[in-house]
Specification:
homotetramer, alpha/beta, Aspartate Aminotransferase, domain 1, Aspartate Aminotransferase, domain 2, 2 domains, seven-stranded mixed sheet, 14 helices, 13 strands
Chain lengths: 350, 350, 350, 350
Amino acid sequence: MKPEMKIRFNNDYSEGAHSEIMARLNETNMIQTAGYGEDPFCDSARDAIKRQFGCQQADVHFLVGGTQANLTVIAAALRPHQAVICAETGHINVHETGAIEACGHKVIGLPHNEGTITAEQIDAYVKAHYNDETHEHITQPKLVYISQPTELGTIYSKDALTAIYQICQKHGLYLFIDGARLGYGLSSADNDLDDKTFSALSDVFTIGGTKMGALFGEAVVINHPALKQDFRYIMKQKGAMLAKGRLLGIQFLSFFEKDLYRRLGNHADELAMHLKTAMLAKGYTPYVNSPTNQQFFILPDADLLEIEKYFTYAYIERIDATHSAVRFCTSWATRPEDVKTLIKFIDALH
Amino acid sequence: MKPEMKIRFNNDYSEGAHSEIMARLNETNMIQTAGYGEDPFCDSARDAIKRQFGCQQADVHFLVGGTQANLTVIAAALRPHQAVICAETGHINVHETGAIEACGHKVIGLPHNEGTITAEQIDAYVKAHYNDETHEHITQPKLVYISQPTELGTIYSKDALTAIYQICQKHGLYLFIDGARLGYGLSSADNDLDDKTFSALSDVFTIGGTKMGALFGEAVVINHPALKQDFRYIMKQKGAMLAKGRLLGIQFLSFFEKDLYRRLGNHADELAMHLKTAMLAKGYTPYVNSPTNQQFFILPDADLLEIEKYFTYAYIERIDATHSAVRFCTSWATRPEDVKTLIKFIDALH
Amino acid sequence: MKPEMKIRFNNDYSEGAHSEIMARLNETNMIQTAGYGEDPFCDSARDAIKRQFGCQQADVHFLVGGTQANLTVIAAALRPHQAVICAETGHINVHETGAIEACGHKVIGLPHNEGTITAEQIDAYVKAHYNDETHEHITQPKLVYISQPTELGTIYSKDALTAIYQICQKHGLYLFIDGARLGYGLSSADNDLDDKTFSALSDVFTIGGTKMGALFGEAVVINHPALKQDFRYIMKQKGAMLAKGRLLGIQFLSFFEKDLYRRLGNHADELAMHLKTAMLAKGYTPYVNSPTNQQFFILPDADLLEIEKYFTYAYIERIDATHSAVRFCTSWATRPEDVKTLIKFIDALH
Amino acid sequence: MKPEMKIRFNNDYSEGAHSEIMARLNETNMIQTAGYGEDPFCDSARDAIKRQFGCQQADVHFLVGGTQANLTVIAAALRPHQAVICAETGHINVHETGAIEACGHKVIGLPHNEGTITAEQIDAYVKAHYNDETHEHITQPKLVYISQPTELGTIYSKDALTAIYQICQKHGLYLFIDGARLGYGLSSADNDLDDKTFSALSDVFTIGGTKMGALFGEAVVINHPALKQDFRYIMKQKGAMLAKGRLLGIQFLSFFEKDLYRRLGNHADELAMHLKTAMLAKGYTPYVNSPTNQQFFILPDADLLEIEKYFTYAYIERIDATHSAVRFCTSWATRPEDVKTLIKFIDALH
């Protein structure tokens, strides 16, 4: 191995798109269609998604990126005085440069457990809000944002998600599930949520394409009728309506016509489990116990210095004077031989 | 005492205005002046404030209310991606219904010590921001908001404020001090900041009128040149430019021409100290050790049930099954005999 | 007359408040009440307004100023992609420093006729919007804003207002009437709208206090149920919830308990008609034919140079090389002798 | 010809990407790179653009779409009270669903001449603003937005653009040129602006990719130092920072490495001139005299009914009872034989 040719494990968007997707983009390239998502490819992709997730009544829209999808959904859902509840670690709270606040809304970060929050926390927060005599002086909680899998790679079980959805319904809150890495969650061996149940336990969710093997793209699936109205106006306003919307339709059709989305999820998760096993065997402490493609471990800095000569990873935080938490990602594009190389390299560290 | 005539200690804005202020409003009532703060009364009030706080180069503006002043200052100071750092308990973070977020900016609440934050906390936060490789994905800290006195009645010492101001200057942050109750802070026996030093240790601060004996009104004093430009445009946009601006000028002139502001601060703080002494003597536990007009104590619920028959207080939070934290406020308008009545009443509780 | 003691006709907010209002503020000054508009004075004022305007089902809120009231109502009413239709001359379009845009909404200015727009114009605009294939790329018209009287002093007749309200209902638009000078409109000899009919032909309207003899204050009357929810949250967020809300209640109670509002409207309108008659007699060309307290005329610059030595007026625009359009206002505070003085002065100009 | 296989002339984004671009996307597909525009392809594309436009000191960023680019640039440039001046027909004024207002800024539409505005208009507007005594009550003009070519296909000459840039500099306004179809403008036979001069006469401009043969993408070129700071923060906040930023770099590198951008511009403009000549020969009245790829003509409705059986066009507006204005676009993808077919078809109309 030569250091100048590092193998990338720092994230899951280091390559272009899966070959099946590229093939279809090439085939359809010179076909003329209408713009702005009103083409036959988008229509077919919408149908495929609604079949897959069992949500025939849903509206499905295609947007380019995750921050864009999050801010558009939330801007469409909330009135000016309303706020979003999420985990402190929620992507909208920490890694979107205040995109939600720029739309006028406070993001309320609750303490998290490995990236997740609970129905009990939500219930307590909302009750406390309305019990406060001065609640009109405080932003009104109206939407709960969770990620599946979470930003730390963990997943909500069927029981946990059911409880959250029920508490949202009880309090009149919308439940928005960010599925930027949804495929890696649904494909996880630990996942007990089938696609249809998952959809039925949400008001709106996204299906991430970028990190799952598309060039780019997130599908927004809107189940709750109150969230459907005029969504395309708001997409356009936020710069989220792609002129050549067909590109999104073509890619999502590729994902859901022949189960590619699930196959790619399985691919990445299996490789991640190999890596996890090796890390545990090496004696590294898990930072989070993740069943998906993102693996967070605590490593000696000395080992990291060696590893980073040949591999990239994402630095998370310092743990103590000689240890750091880091993240290794597999993805749809990860080559099994590269994982083997990494595992061998780690094993060989003294 | 009849229960239907409760004596109010729940806040410091239960009455109209101090008699000297009302007298001057009456005297000047039918004089014709220009509108929007461009009248001779406002000019004189600006001069008086600049003399009092030794800030001859400052711009001084008069606004109606505290939330209005906070959101106008912050909207004027920040670019879209920039955020405010404050204590978790900061008024802008918890009691302005997301006014700052509605202007597009994230409010970053740091853990507090009796309502205060430290220069070290600010320094650590800003350093961590710029050390993060992905800092462009995170809102950029640009302004520090503190309150003097804090929302819990405590005050920053000269040393603490100096350290905060220096760290702000080091990192290119603006320091904004919310003085909604400034008079009660500057008048406190524990205060070691004279008015001129206080002003010199800030980029912009407010001088609260509403809670200090005016019908309404907050003066915004802008020391930092970069914050001065076009401030009146933004006032107008935010609905914060009073047509009959003279009313603000007249009131602030009354405050600062004959030291009324300080006299009223002394009045309230002295009464608060009597009450504090009595509460401590009674054996009540302080919730916060406040040297100003707001006194936070933990009382048995049984006592509160008696007290609230004749007096109002503000409920803060439940402490345990039989105790609650509450707030009693004195103010410019509090009658010494009412404090005596309350003290006697508490003494008499079995 | 000495030039340094100019008599002000440039606007209708040059003085403090009417003596009846000041008297009541003085009387009630030291009474203790709850804050934020939840006091008995506000309750009584709400009742008086609902009686006067025959809108028992309405919600009534009190805010400090006109820009504040306009932006709060519109922010509460619209979703992000929705826009306001108004006359090009509408206050929100030209004199609020983009307050509505700062809340995220486009203001669509239609051509005006002496400050008014018509039902036909609104109908045509909305139809054109929905007929456009790309209407999702264009802000969606959702609220119509008109002023009664208009910014040019003219008034909508019962027929005109009925037509506008009906077209709004047909298209699902809210009708918001800005009554910053409502009293001068309702009191006009040309007005054929009684108070109850006026209210019944709107979804939300304001009753201006500042220009009608209050120190400050606008009442927002919300008739449409969809506009009522959580309005106080949004007031607080916009800095529009006065701590000593009682001050607004006391003033509006004064206006509507003994018909003061109408009396003051009559006073100003009658004086304005004297002035108008004199101007016409002098041969000055009306810029607008206004039946209310604002009189817009075209005068020779030479005459204006003389007039401005002793009187103030508002400059509107240059008409030709030797003539300008200007505005003279009377108000609740205008002294009949001052109007006589001005009329004599004009008569005497060679 | 079969009606179900209409040939599309309604816009210039009906296909995917030019074959040279697709080829390069395919070749580079599985190469691993850093994300968010920090990869070698983006670096090379930046260099190529800076060479082409002679702006070595510029910052170059790549965004996905035009509305996104416009709103990000303007949000980054303006303070809350500042407004954009543009032609009434400006894309930001009429076809972005209020994207600029959603960022808080008023868009001031000036009357246009075939889509253009003049330095004189800008000068007059700005002078009038500052001459108005109440200018603080009016949004402050700070940025001029023009499009090259305009939304009506016309172009600014070197003289016209020089005059606009000079007046902007005189008044301290930023000049932002929207180049969504820049290649069709720069390639026009009527254009007298070379690329370097064009760039030198702007503070910031965009280079459109979507309509010029990319799958998507707009380059933002920032010349003015004040507009550079922290632009990436604001991109991220607005959802405009593509995870796989390399896709933008690869496409723009394809455009500017071997002059593809100019070749495609020439292609479309030449075909448009053939069509224009034929339309004029047929006796159709030009709606606008456009020298670029968008051709606006007034046609009899009877002819349009025939044409639309086999071709698509964009409907603009009704002219009279029997005529309508419509737009035909050529593009990088237009096949010469399709233009010939359309011309023959029109010639054959009785």
